[in-house]
Amino acid sequence: MSYIDGFVIAVPTANKQKFIEHARQFDPIFIELGAIRVFEGWGDDVPDGKVTDFRRAVQATAEETVAFSWVEWPDKATRDAAMKKMMEDPRMDPSTPGNPPMPFDGKRMIFGGFEPVVEVKA
Fold this sequence. Notes:
Layout: E1 3-12, H1 16-32, E2 37-42, H2 54-57, E3 64-73, H3 76-88, E4 110-114
Antiparallel strand pairs: 1-3, 1-4, 2-3
């Protein structure tokens, strides 16, 4: 079974197009390094919860939209090797000249790696 990296971030709503452009520039690197697919989702129906919710999880303000993304890898070993390569890749370093800044506050991003335990397909 594959391995999934999941991400939830708060993006200034005014930066939606910058977010899309950022994803189009950087997501192909995941594929180059072995990912099966990359998904970027822009919050459309993200309700406020009574105890917690996506917005609170990333401290989103009224001027921000929650984005939900994931990267699917064939297995954890491929993901671990790719993450190591990404940390060394100047294309992933925002301080590299020519690389655009992230269009969101990366300090409020939540992320993690997940081993699928159930998969149901149509």
